[in-house]
Amino acid sequence: MELDLTEMQAVVKRLKRAQGQIGGILKMIEDGRDCQDIVTQLAAVSKALDRAGFAVIALGLRQCITNPEAGSMDVESMEKLFLSLA
């Protein structure tokens, strides 16, 4: 199933922000920053990636509901994708 690119812009923005956070984490490690600070940032990136994944699944579900004929994914496939993020 292809998702609407205009609706995916929020996901792209979130992923770009996470990409920047990962760069910051790498710099923190290279600079010898405190373990607690690094882990805190890793947790933030992990949460951002999870939210991006859930947003993609939510968009897919919305598209399946509003236009079921166009979707190539069934409910079982969507459920499997959702659970893969857990």
Largest sheet: none
Helical stretch count?
3
Distance between the termini: 21 Å
CATH architecture: Up-down Bundle
Q: Assess the beta-strand content as a share of residues.
A: under 5%
Order of helices and strands: HHH
Q: Quick one: how many beta strands?
A: 0
What attributes characterize this protein structure?
single chain, 86 residues, mainly alpha, Methane Monooxygenase Hydroxylase, Chain G, domain 1, 3 helices
Plain-language structure description:
By secondary structure, this protein is mainly alpha-helical. It has one domain (9-84): Metal-sensitive repressor, helix protomer (Methane Monooxygenase Hydroxylase, Chain G, domain 1, Up-down Bundle). Helix content is 74%, strand content 0%. It is built from three helices and no strands. It has helices at residues 9-30, 35-66, 75-84. Helix 1 (9-30) runs antiparallel to helix 2 (35-66). The mean pLDDT is 87.
